[in-house]
Amino acid sequence: MSLDRAMPHLSRFGLEDRVKLFDVSSATVELAAQAVGCQPERIAKTLSFLLPEGPVLILAAGDARIDNGKYKARFHTKARMIPHDEVEPLIGHGVGGVCPFGVNEGIPVYLDESLRRFDVVYPAAGTPNSAVELSLEELERASQASGWVDVCKDWG
């Protein structure tokens, strides 16, 4: 897990000063919400999946869950999360700190519609004790998102 990868990426967009480092873990939605001091749904969790052509990242609201039917309709395959021990080699960040900043080359990033209800969200910044405060526009720009998708349920 690497703040060393996320920070230079965020600095390219002038956002490095938004990173928050904590003395406690922020590795889960609940822990991140406690560390940040926000509602859990405002945590922009980064989910990592394997498509036939390679890994893909989807950022979703903390209270959202993948809807298998919507995922399959959008990506034409069953939702298959990357196994825990393969996340860091494939993505560039380990479980608990996965974020869309400074990831390995060629990994598409999508933002789920569950995030659109917020003005500000908090994704991780490469470590299990960090977050970065971003508007949706900043998140879209800094994540270099390939677009918005609607693949989640149980939010709102």
Short description:
This protein has 156 residues and is of the alpha/beta class. It is 26% helix and 24% strand.
Keyword list:
alpha/beta, four-stranded mixed sheet, two-stranded antiparallel sheet, 10 strands
What does this structure look like?
The protein has helices spanning 3-11, 29-36, 68-75, 84-91, 136-142; strands at residues 19-21, 44-51, 54-61, 65-66, 109-112, 120-121, 130-132, 134-135, 147-149, 152-153. By secondary structure, the chain is an alpha/beta fold. The strands form four sheets. Strands 2-3-5-9 form a four-stranded mixed β-sheet, covered by helices on one side. Strand 2 and strand 3 (54-61) form a beta hairpin. The longest helix has 9 residues, at 3-11. It is globular. The mean pLDDT is 96.
Count of DSSP-assigned helices? 5
Largest sheet: 4 strands, mixed
> In what order do the strands lie side by side in the largest sheet?
2-3-5-9
Poorly predicted parts: none
Class from secondary-structure proportions: alpha/beta
Secondary-structure element order, N to C:
HEHEEEHHEEEEHEE
Radius of gyration: 14 Å
Strand content: 15-25%
What percentage of residues falls in helices of 4 or more residues? 25-40%
Shape: globular
Count of individual beta strands:
10
Measure the end-to-end span: 30 Å
Mean pLDDT over all positions = 96
- Name the quaternary structure: single chain
